[in-house]
Specification:
The chain is α+β, with helices and mostly antiparallel strands. Helix content is 17%, strand content 36%.
């Protein structure tokens, strides 16, 4: 558990891919369990990251911070940047607009016709292209279940390892190449600007494609 920030009101860590953010049916140790062991049982999560996803995860340490963070995430005042390694080659930048619905039984998002689901937009920009994969910067304008995973797949470029959304093959550790690179928000109590950044996972393809991180 790599610590990114900690104060009396919140804590932020770099969640490893494959670790559940909170308890799930597998019974595997969760990041929330680890945070409560380190910072007390009052720690709560105002947002989530899918189990196979890595990156910045913010937790509240006080009820006051939790209320403010819940409001900030729900109202879209938190700016999120993701990095994803996707199959195929892209160039430049653009925006994908998709209508999604949540298939709860299959635990996945599905693309549907306009008016049948929620319209979402995802800004993308190529950071580096390899021979078979492209590293993208992704900036979601809304928040929806599996939004980034579904939109990349709908565009014909599934995230590496994400077999649920059409990737050619999975990873041995069941992670996918999606990383919550940064979260920018106002501190829930002091109002100060916070920029929380998480270094990318340590894998050969990540090292080959990710620009030098400061």
């Amino acid at each position: 558990m790599e610590l990114l920030h900690a104060d009396a009101h919140l804590v932020a860590v770099n969640k490893p891919g494959g670790t559940p953010a909170q308890a799930d049916p597998t019974g595997d140790p969760s990041l929330l369990d680890a945070l409560r062991a380190a910072y007390g049982h009052g720690v709560e999560l105002p947002h989530r990251l899918d189990r196979p996803v890595s990156g910045v995860l913010v937790a509240a340490r006080t009820p006051e911070a939790l209320r403010a963070l819940n409001t900030a995430f729900a109202s879209g005042r938190v700016r999120k940047v993701y990095w994803a390694i996707v199959e195929g080659l892209l160039h430049g930048h653009g925006t994908w607009q998709t209508v999604l619905t949540h298939d709860a039984r299959a635990r996945r998002a599905r693309t549907v016709a306009p008016g049948e689901g929620r319209a979402v937009r995802l800004a993308w920009r190529v950071l580096r292209a390899g021979e078979r994969y492209t590293l993208l910067e992704l900036r979601p304008e809304q928040g929806a279940f599996h939004q980034l995973r579904a939109q990349c797949a709908a565009a014909g470029h599934p995230i590496k390892g994400d077999v649920k959304y059409g990737a050619r093959r999975g990873e041995k550790d069941r992670t996918i190449a999606l990383h919550a690179r940064s979260i920018a928000l106002l501190h829930p109590v002091t109002g100060a600007d916070l920029l929380l950044e998480a270094p990318s996972p340590d894998g050969a393809l990540w090292r080959a494609l990710v620009p030098v991180q400061g």
